[in-house]
Specification:
It is a single chain. The chain is α/β, with parallel strands linked by helices. The chain has 3 domains: about 160 residues, FAD/NAD(P)-binding domain (3-Layer(bba) Sandwich); about 200 residues, FAD/NAD(P)-binding domain (3-Layer(bba) Sandwich); about 70 residues. The chain has 14 helices and 14 strands. The structure holds flavin-adenine dinucleotide. The site of flavin-adenine dinucleotide has 15 residues, from helix 1 and helix 8.
């Protein structure tokens, strides 16, 4: 057993791969290899193999183009249920040779560039709302993306690659290689339904997207040779901390508390009431659809360090968010999410679980989240102080009261001298004189000066 005063979870959100798709039989009789892209089997040689890929999300978009070119696969059949919105990937500014050089050798260049990239990403936040303005931006954005798709992929794919839901409802794919790779005759993208796996093949059925109005030749069953099946079917994103069992001071596990409160939730992402000194980086509702998870994680790291400071300095032994703050936070997040494209954009995504609870994304801008992390709302937390911490706390309190007292005395004294009757010219003169005297003469008594000014001695 390892004893620790503080526990910080950094187990990530896209870690546990989804298993073989439920309800599709035959994978146990398949004699080839099956693996998930997040558990890549480098020991399996894909050269001259028939590879079937299940899924068309961000992972598949990255590895499918490499299967024939880098791994030497003979034939790749990619099974897609619904098309993603695909955004042309931003090129590295100043190219692959100049970019890294400038970042390394020009002071401040990398920081400025990062700021510009973050600002550009932040601008995409406009796409996620439910207002007429956001919807208009989505339509404009979608038109541009469809144009890009038609320019990039063969015409036979135009229909299946036209999404029937709003852009940004599902995670967008930032792509530079998948669309161009669809020109490769060795890659076949299909929306026929995966019906079953056989010992050395898979059976595909009717077309799932777009659904056929009347059955046609595209809907006939088809057997596809398969030596290897690669699952690009995503991650278990709506459960948190699996397989970790985190138990709070009341003896309840986080999972129990999530179930009691309607779904996974944690205040600001890192903290939960009744779980003192437990923090998580990349907790529930901290990813965004428009900007980097890494940036959000950095914000949470800063926030956690601020909260931890009194403990690290030996001033406190425990910190815990209040239950009312946590509940209010979660209610606000869930309410706000109802008015976003994730819930109104006409798609089913991995952000939302089957019961409609969205524990994945943050409905506000990352700038706002960054500010909230920079300036924690201390009244939402309770600390258990050490004696040293208590002394410091009371000293700080005493100092504040003393400062307030001094301020009151000064204001009253100034009023008695009639300073409140001064006009702008009088204040300017006082300021000039004060600065002058402090700098050059070591400071005459202000009282005399103020009286002089009030009495018209300018
Ligand atoms: C294919 C893919 C592409 C992505 N692309 C982007 C992108 O372009 N931009 C972006 O912002 N985000 C992207 N993400 C999201 C990504 O999850 C985050 O950006 C980032 O990796 C999160 O960092 P993290 O440290 O929180 O978690 P991770 O990088 O997932 O790291 C978690 C670590 O914890 C370990 N771990 C888990 N459970 C335990 C345990 N019980 N005990 C010990 N160790 C454990 C894991 O093995 C892993 O090493 C992508 C994710 C995937 C899967």
């Amino acid at each position: 057993m390892v004893r620790a005063k503080v526990l910080i979870s950094c187990v990530g959100g896209l870690v546990e791969p989804n298993p073989w798709p439920q309800g599709i039989p035959g994978h146990e009789t398949f004699t080839g290899d099956i693996f998930h892209s997040a558990r890549w089997r480098y020991d399996i040689d894909l050269r001259d193999k028939n590879v079937v890929v299940i899924g068309s999300g961000c992972s598949a978009a990255q590895f499918v183009p490499e299967l024939p070119t880098v791994y030497g696969a003979k034939k790749v059949t990619q099974v897609m249920r619904t098309p993603p919105w695909v955004v042309p990937k931003q090129e590295q500014p100043f190219g692959d040779s100049w970019g890294p050089w400038l970042n390394t050798h020009i002071p401040g260049f990398a920081h400025t560039l990062r700021l510009l990239v973050a600002a550009k990403a932040e601008y995409d936040w406009r796409l996620f709302g439910d207002s007429a303005w956001s919807k208009a931006h989505r339509r404009k954005n979608e038109a541009g993306l469809l144009e890009h798709m038609r320019r990039t992929v063969p015409e036979k794919y135009w229909e299946v690659l036209t999404p029937n839901y709003d852009v940004a409802c599902k995670r967008r794919i930032f792509d530079a290689t998948w669309f161009p790779s669809l020109k490769d005759a060795r890659i076949d993208l299909t929306t026929k339904q995966l019906l079953k796996a056989n010992p050395r093949s898979v059976t595909l059925g009717a077309r799932t997207y777009p659904p056929s109005k009347t059955p046609g030749p595209d809907d006939a069953e088809k057997e596809i040779d398969a030596d290897v099946i690669i699952l690009g079917n995503g991650f278990q994103t709506t459960q948190w901390f699996h397989p970790l069992q985190v138990v709070g001071r009341n003896g309840h596990s986080l999972r129990d508390v999530f179930a009691q409160r309607g779904g996974p939730q944690m205040y600001m992402g890192p903290t939960m009431d009744a779980f003192p000194n437990f923090f998580t980086i990349f907790g529930p509702n901290t990813a965004t659809g428009h900007t980097s998870v890494v940036l959000a994680s950095e914000n949470m790291v800063n926030y956690t360090i601020k909260l931890l400071k009194p403990i690290l300095k030996g001033d406190a032994t425990a910190v815990e968010v209040t239950e009312s703050a946590e509940r209010a936070w979660s209610k606000d997040i869930q309410d706000q999410l109802q008015n976003t494209v994730w819930h109104r954009g006409g798609c089913k995504s991995w952000y939302v679980d089957d019961g409609g609870w969205n524990s994945t994304v943050y409905p506000y801008s990352q700038v706002w989240f960054g500010l909230k992390c920079m300036f924690p709302k201390w009244s939402d937390y309770t600390y258990r102080y050490t004696t040293k911490g208590l002394v410091k706390k009371y000293l700080r309190m005493f100092a504040k009261i003393a400062l307030l007292g001094i301020l009151v005395v000064v204001v009253r004294g100034a009023r008695r001298m009639g300073v409140h009757h001064l006009d702008a010219e009088g204040w300017k003169l006082i300021l000039r004189q004060v600065v002058g005297r402090l700098l050059f003469s070591g400071g005459d008594r202000l009282k005399v000066l103020a009286r002089g000014v009030v009495n018209g001695e300018r």
